[in-house]
Amino acid sequence: MQSTMQDVPLLISRILTHGSALHGSSQVITWTGEGEPRRRSFAEVGARSAKLAHALRDDLGVQGDARVATLMWNNPEHVEAYFAIPSMGAVLHTLNLRLPAEQLVWIVNHAADRVVIANGSLLPLLAPLLPHLKSVEHVVVSGPGDRSLLDGASAQVRVHEYEDLIADKPETYDWPELDERQAAAMCYTSGTTGDPKGVVYSHRSIYLHSMQVNMAQSMGLTDQDTSLIVVPQFHVNAWGLPHATFMTGVNMLMPDRFLQPGPLAEMIESERPTHAAAVPTIWQGLLQELKAKPRDVSSLGQVTIGGSACPPALMAAFDELGMRVCHAWGMTETSPLGTIARPPARVIGTDEEFAYRLTQGRFPASVEARLTGPGGERLPWDGESAGELEVRGPWIAGAYYGGQDAEVLRPADKFSEDGWLKTGDVGTISPDGYLTLTDRAKDVIKSGGEWISSVDLENALMAHPDVAEAAVVAVPDDKWGERPLATVVLKEGATADFATLRAFLADEGKIAKWQLPERWTVIEAVPKTSVGKFDKKVLRGQYAAGDLDVTQI
Ligand code: ADP
Questions:
Q1: Has 451 been annotated as catalytic?
Q2: CATH for 443-552, among 3.20.10.10, 3.60.15.10, 3.30.300.30, 3.90.1210.10?
Q3: Which of 59, 136, 230, 333 could make an SS bond with 397 (beta carbons 3.0 to 4.6 A apart)?
Q4: Is 446 annotated as catalytic?
Q5: Whole-prediction pTM
Q6: Is 17 a catalytic residue?
């Protein structure tokens, strides 16, 4: 029997028209570095998105599934691009401005982007790339920056001013009724563990994901909230927050290019956001800043941390400051919300609560999960059996972008034969569905047939008062196959030596004796990837090249 329900496609244009009409007075507030922040209402964002769509179609000839790229910080013009491009039927491609130049060129050419909308402050990055961008015909520039950098950069590219382009366009657009399964946006993985891969989100996947982000069991934000969106819009759609906030009228506080701890602390104190989202490295920086120069950050009732594991010491320090961390796990391929760590009701207020908050969290109803052991066997959800996490669901990628080649579309190390996404993350799942990641499959240390979690060692080390940061990588060992190498960044004036740190790890059985590293080195900073994660590939390379001064104890 057929259902009797209406079949209304889940389109991004519906989020746009709803948000700009019913939450028209909610605001996108943007930090400017000096003086007053910029303030733009959702109603204005809606009208300007329509203007942008007209300009892209009528002046720049954007049609069909043409790719329109953005090279932008978090700001209202980027939000306008987020809505205008997919709503008109084209495909938004957010470019990660922290990628090495050659990777950016590769990605733009791979996606065949026709237009790039860029912030003026990023023209020093864009100008030298332009001659290598084969498909780009138009560059649209927004915000302050030296336009002359583009003079003569490329003969085939026409340069436009964002504000001029949209100035005299109509404030409404007859958004087409698209197929909800059509491409809306694309994002390349940051290549921490290999070549970048294109993930293409549909209108439907983004719509459903936004509803999940808004659920009380997830971020649960309403129009009484202001969300400080530090996670870049070029990083997995800023974790879906621009779409989700527009749905429910949550004010967006956008840092633009002011991502340093000082300005972040200032914007929290003056604009009093109730929610914020970023990767742990941002929060580590903010914590140091607040210790050096205390500010009133009490408005921040909820801080979503994800992208890499939240160190327990960071969570505890935030608790003390009255900011409650909510840990979440996801990846480019999962839109990204995969799990979120809201403890079950029965442990609230008990000793177990903190342990639950430290897990990567519980799977929402639409994300199915299973664990696969080294031999391909299914492992139980007993909180002990560790295997590779595989997931499926309506906002989980089922393939990568890139033509017909099966190895590009569905590489065997990324998708199971029955279509589940292999996450490359290793962990356990408790009987009540909480995920605890122990490592990445590629980072776990395989010592004498046993696994050592590099993340456990790092967390234990970072709990020492003299340690600012620590990264642990596997290095080859004649006897055990692999052993951990501890690379440590010491705080200024720290006195702890390696023997002290090793004893600290062993203390109270925190780390089993056989897992304690015997190789140690002090480094100035942990190398980071384009999205602020520890770049262990670089550390392994430095060790192999003999560039690290390693002490054996
Ligand atoms: P990349 O794979 O290039 O780093 P992503 O941003 O897609 O790009 O990263 C996804 C990965 O980040 C996950 O597979 C996982 O290894 C890691 N990750 C994300 N969130 C967490 C978390 N809360 N705890 C531990 N690891 C996390």
A1: yes
A2: 3.30.300.30
A3: 333
A4: yes
A5: 0.88
A6: no
One of 32, 266, 269, 451 is an active-site residue; which one?
451
Given the CA of residue 235, which atom of ligand 1 is nearest to it?
Answer: 6
Domain spans of the chain? 8-25+36-201, 443-552
Q: What tokens does 404 get?
A: 């017909």
Per-residue pLDDT at 52: 99
The question of whether 245 is a catalytic residue gets the answer no
Cα separation of 312 and 357, whole Å? 9
The correct CATH number of 8-25+36-201 out of 3.40.50.2300, 3.40.50.11930, 3.40.50.12780, 3.30.70.260 is: 3.40.50.12780
- Amino acid identity of residue 378, one-letter, is R
Q: Which of 333, 388, 390, 458 is catalytic?
A: 333
Residue 29 near residue 37, CB atoms below 8 Å: yes
Residues with CB under 6 A from ligand 1: 189-192, 306-309, 327-332, 360, 423-425, 437, 440, 531, 533
* Angle value at C-alpha 285, between 284 and 290, nearest 5 degrees: 100
The span from the CA of 264 to the CA of 467, in Å, is: 23
Instruction: Give me the residues paired with residue 425 across strands.
Output: 440
Backbone angles phi, psi at 33, to 5 degrees: 90, -35
Cα 545 to its chain centre, rounded Å, is 31
Q: From ligand 1's centre to the CA of 364, what distance in Å?
A: 18
- C-alpha 329 to ligand 1 mean position (Å): 7
Q: Residues 61-90: what's their mean pLDDT?
A: 98
Asked whether the CA dihedral 542, 437, 392, 199 is positive or negative, the reply is negative
- What confidence tens digit (pLDDT) does each residue in 285-296 have? 999 999 999 999
